[in-house]
């Protein structure tokens, strides 16, 4: 999940929800077809009546001509209404090759979550509309609503964090470490080549509970580090900041309290826009004084590590602010823990990181992939955010009838961009990806052996062997071998008249063309041995 | 997937979409609040104006009183509108225990699909509305539509079969064996205790392509047999029939062509209703002659195996019908293949099986669980359908611009009912289910060892060990051990002052309380050895 503010930005492009005309066209077409159908029916009745009434042949001929004309018209019209064969805008199918890559990525992510002792939950794809209301700020306009068909008003989930908070409050859970991998939905401007979709996966890991400061927070960053290292998709950097430091900074820069969230959203655009553009939005659109904006400008260009934290703790203005002091103190602690985890070199404390969503209350972070440094050793360039998250201590309280809070911190891995990169990598390497795990093809050497093939494959399935056969009564041996070449099946179990008599099966290794007779009772073991299955 | 006709039946119960009143209530409430707000605003203006006009203190006081009254009213009203903390009707969350069971069920199903050489695909949760139009007959009213928010008109998928056919036509695929496991959506009357939801999983396996008769069809039944055996949820029976036999039977019984599908839907209700009820629907609602109904009645009570097929091939009326002859011939072939697979004893040719969906063209089947026979050896009683499917040779052609057909046959496993049964079984057995895979808890024997715990756990994570620690600076050893007891973590790695000096970690086996000092460099291997991980 790309930063939510980036989503919000794009949705401001005018006219992008512009495919309404197609739907209107379909309705018009349907109406026209219905009208024509009715005319046709009436004309047919006329012809029938005339015939019954034994009208003159000329009269009948005239009306039949009219009927044929109408029929022709219907034909033309029918041709005009082309059915559009596509998936909805911003969505896609996954073919078996893409699924193989997707499952590889999921395996790495899930095994990391499990290595950290996470449980797993699932929630429905839609929530009551009011569950989502008031949680996403200006991004709320991107929520998909369901049609009111009688009953409850529903919306598709926008992320997995709000459903998680609803789940905790509903079940009065005060303590859990869980992951959740599922699709979320945003009516955003899709940019599918860059991995941005309207339906996309989020892989979330969250720790809920009252704990000592920054220990769970540090673990979330360790998890991001493990996953991005494990995926081997190049160098990366994890930016961290804290909402309390931002709020303290806004206060000392002279931003009125009421404008904190608004200015925060504007700061969040710094990863895509220049400071000049951001400043002009602050002053022009958000009504901030140019002096206050300039003071913010000085802070948000700062990034570094422990040194910067120490420097800001001494900052004459910032150190006077209680929130900022708290945030900086915790940031220092976080860096100590990250150093113990051996990952501090990939983490940058960055005062320009703001994150779009309203619900963050403490530390926030975002991981970006860095393009490889070129020969001139220029600064590595960001190719976009692949993970993000932070602390949200107030969200569960919004759902609890008595407002009881459950502190939470979590991270969300943005799988689609990672998946795009992996897919490109696979294509570039021309690596052949198998989309099945079939160990053996059951083949026949001669005709009329369908029954024998069915008996053998059934035996193999029943002993746990992954086996296929061609669905032909009498397939040619060459076609059967070719199928193995095409799909990467390593072994062929060939039945023939002679083999049946001898109580053996000919086992052929596709790669080497080596053939060996194996006694039928040993076949399962031999296949397992040769395909390295326990 | 529960038979679709059962869904249709329930939706006819009047008033079941009966939570409209709640939504209406909310709208009323919102209207009232808006009205009140407007009144309040007007009253505030009045007070302001009076003050500006320097009206008499009495006059101002009177109007202020009115304002306060309105404000109080708003307060009361606000309190009335309670936020409902729930998941949408007919849906549920899965907690970690339920997820553990669900993953066990999926593992069995997926490994069966893979054993048969299936690839996997995925499609979006919603489709263009017109993709689903005209595919489900009278069940179409159960489709969830998305709100028209500008752009394409969308609906949530109703099953995985129609999206599969759309996928094949869109990508011009004429040959594939794939599985797809995903949630589908039906605005049906939920019966959640019996595993019937509005959001539920389907696990579909389909074979598309032009092949020799009944070979893929037989494999689908073999798969159902393997899955239901593997799940160990008791005895089961797979009923089979063929749409061509049904249509032939309708023809020879004197049902007009135009009523075939309608009468077919009525026959499908025989698993829940008596013949008398079904007959009265045929005659009363569907306008069939009582004689035709009686002739149908004679056929639909027949069930058996190869013997019945032979008998019907000799049936003086049925054998005259081309469609019926084709269907019966293929049914005979199917039973031959099922016998070779060794599963014919669990299959019953049943002329009352009809299946609700429009798109079937050939063999159809449905698996039901049988309750264990009681001591009196009565007939086993059906506890409901857990799998179903059949051949649909025309569906892909409905999407192809040139109407090119791709023959398909498939099966859908209804996971929710199976899941309910598994859940009950687990609860009854009081078996303790672990919801994490954590191998070791990193614990401290004394205070002030947080840093040492962080260093050790980081080492373990980096060498692939699943490890947890408590997020406290100074947790008590007893609490750390208790956490292992509660969550089933088998090992504790304890760091203490002495152990640090000696370069060892104390490894404690939770079950036996045995403790052993392990040299730090050997710890990973020792944990792997003791938790049987490769």
TrEMBL record, chains A, B:
**Which positions fall inside the WHEP-TRS domain?**
32-88
EC number(s) given by UniProt? 6.1.1.21
Catalysed reaction equations from the record: tRNA(His) + L-histidine + ATP = L-histidyl-tRNA(His) + AMP + diphosphate + H(+)
Transmembrane intervals: none
Pfam families, per this entry?
A: HGTP_anticodon, tRNA-synt_His, WHEP-TRS
| Keyword rRNA processing appears in the UniProt entry | no
Q: Name one GO biological process term.
A: mitochondrial translation
Q: Which UniProt keywords apply?
A: Aminoacyl-tRNA synthetase, ATP-binding, Cytoplasm, Ligase, Nucleotide-binding, Protein biosynthesis
GO MF term (any one): identical protein binding
- Looking at the record, the residues that make up the Aminoacyl-transfer RNA synthetases class-II family profile domain are 90-422
- Coiled-coil positions are none
Q: Which GO terms describe its cellular component?
A: cytosol; mitochondrion
Which InterPro entries did the record assign? aa-tRNA-synth_II (IPR006195), aa-tRNA-synth_II/BPL/LPL (IPR045864), Anticodon-bd (IPR004154), Anticodon-bd_dom_sf (IPR036621), His-tRNA-ligase (IPR015807), HisRS-like_core (IPR041715), HisRS/HisZ (IPR004516), HisRS_anticodon (IPR033656)
Assigned protein family: Belongs to the class-II aminoacyl-tRNA synthetase family.
Q: What is this protein called?
A: histidine--tRNA ligase
Q: Which organism is it from?
A: Chrysemys picta bellii (Western painted turtle)
């Amino acid at each position: 999940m790309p930063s939510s503010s980036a989503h919000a930005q794009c949705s401001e492009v005018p006219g992008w929800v512009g495919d309404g005309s197609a739907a209107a066209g379909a309705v018009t077409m349907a109406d026209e077809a219905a009208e024509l159908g009715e005319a046709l029916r009436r004309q047919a009745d006329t012809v029938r009546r005339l015939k019954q009434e034994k009208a003159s042949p000329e009269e009948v001929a005239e009306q039949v001509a009219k009927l044929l004309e109408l029929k022709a018209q219907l034909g033309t019209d029918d041709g005009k209404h082309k059915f559009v064969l596509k998936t909805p805008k911003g969505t896609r199918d996954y073919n078996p090759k893409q699924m193989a890559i997707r499952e590889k990525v999921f395996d790495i992510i899930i095994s990391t979550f499990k290595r950290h002792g996470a449980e797993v939950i699932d929630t429905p794809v839609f929530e009551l509309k009011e569950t989502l209301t008031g949680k996403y700020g200006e991004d709320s306009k991107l929520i998909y609503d369901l049609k009111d068909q009688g009953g409850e008003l529903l919306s598709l989930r926008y992320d997995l964090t709000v459903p998680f908070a609803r789940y905790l409050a509903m079940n009065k859970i005060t303590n859990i470490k869980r992951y959740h991998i599922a699709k979320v939905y945003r009516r955003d401007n899709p940019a599918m080549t860059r991995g941005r979709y309207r339906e996309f996966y989020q892989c979330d890991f969250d720790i809920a509970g009252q704990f000592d400061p920054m220990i769970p927070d540090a673990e979330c960053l360790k998890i991001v580090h493990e996953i991005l290292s494990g995926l081997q998709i190049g160098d990366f950097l994890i930016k961290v900041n804290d909402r309390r430091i931002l709020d303290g900074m806004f206060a000392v820069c002279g931003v009125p309290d009421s404008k904190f969230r608004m200015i925060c959203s504007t700061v969040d655009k710094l990863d895509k826009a220049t400071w000049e553009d951001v400043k002009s939005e602050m002053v022009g659109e958000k009504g901030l004084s140019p002096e206050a904006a300039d003071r913010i400008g000085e802070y948000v260009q700062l990034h570094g590590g422990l040194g910067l934290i120490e420097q800001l703790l001494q900052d004459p203005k910032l150190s006077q602010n209680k929130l900022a002091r708290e945030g900086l103190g915790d940031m220092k602690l976080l860096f100590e823990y990250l150093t113990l985890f051996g990952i501090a070199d990939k983490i940058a404390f960055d005062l320009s990181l703001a994150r779009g969503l309203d619900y963050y209350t403490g530390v926030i972070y975002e991981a970006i992939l860095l393009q490889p440094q070129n020969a001139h050793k220029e600064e590595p360039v960001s190719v976009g955010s692949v993970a993000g998250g932070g602390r949200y201590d107030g969200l569960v309280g919004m759902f609890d009838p008595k407002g009881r809070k459950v502190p939470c911190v979590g991270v969300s891995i943005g799988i689609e961009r990672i998946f795009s990169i992996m897919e490109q990598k696979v294509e570039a390497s021309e690596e052949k990806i198998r989309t099945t795990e079939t160990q053996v093809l059951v083949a026949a050497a001669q005709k009329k052996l369908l029954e024998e093939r069915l008996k053998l494959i059934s035996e193999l399935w029943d002993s746990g062997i992954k086996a296929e056969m061609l669905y032909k009564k009498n397939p040619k041996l060459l076609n059967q071998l070719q199928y193995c070449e095409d799909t990467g099946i390593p072994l062929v179990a060939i039945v023939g008249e002679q083999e049946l008599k001898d109580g053996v099966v000919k086992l052929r290794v596709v790669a080497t063309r080596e053939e060996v007779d194996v006694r039928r009772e040993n076949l399962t073991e031999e296949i397992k041995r040769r395909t390295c299955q326990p």
